[in-house]
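Example 3.2
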Amino acid sequence: MPIDTRAYTLVTETCRLHHATLVAVSKTRPLADLQELYQMGQRVFAENRVQELTAKAPQLPQDIEWHLIGHLQTNKVRALLPYVHCIQSLDRESLWEKLQEEASRNQSTIRCLLQIKVAAEESKYGWDYKALCELLESGKTAQWPLVKVEGVMGMATLTDDEAQVRGEMRRLKKYFVALKENHFRSDPQFRILSMGMSGDYTMALEEGSNMVRIGSLLFSSSLA
């Protein structure tokens, strides 16, 4: 399906007004669609699956910034690292530990966001906020200095209930602020709140998001 240039223009302008980064979610899209968006000026893309990201990245311009936004299995970390710029789905202790191990092996650092679960849906991944705070308070994360946490990511419940969606977004923003104040106050890189997708990105921006992840809207034939 071709790029909806009207939608892309609207989304980019809305993000600009809110000082937010647009991440184009390119899962299942052919290379031609990504190349078209690239020619329009898009430089940040995201994939849900490691296999798709590692297949596309070598075939596209090297100045693209690739994000992984899907659940990441520890046995796929090594294959992913040569291509990814940010892993938005750091959602458990074992993955944090594995990322440190691979970063140490490569003598590099890895940019990540902490994925926190705020949606009511059981299928959604993410930290339980209380468990995350307990881990941070334990001091254990100091053992993983090569994993650079730059903020948080989350997804609201897929529902037409705007009050519920806004409530979940406000909770994620509250968590972001609290984590910054209590655990990352001295870290200027901890500044990203990745929240909002095609169906709710304007609401997310109103609630404080500074990074939105949009896919289907950019590839549809209508803004509806």
